[in-house]
Amino acid sequence: MLLAIKANREYKITEDEKQKYINMGYKIAKLEEGKLIYEKVETKEDKKIVELEKENEKLKKEIEKLKKDDKKKGKKKGEGK
Q: pTM for the complete prediction?
């Protein structure tokens, strides 16, 4: 049995209705041995978060590299050319 859960609402749904409820923001869970087992569903937001985290790490590495290069050149902050 599948359950669509959002806030305080729980709906018993079929496999055919699963995607419709996912699109509406519900979490999907199965009832197994009296416990709810949530399914991991990737949404557009999840994919965007992963993409942005990768970009963030890349930019942090680039900043560290530029800081090291700046120190090697011996420039002090505000010194200019």
A: 0.50
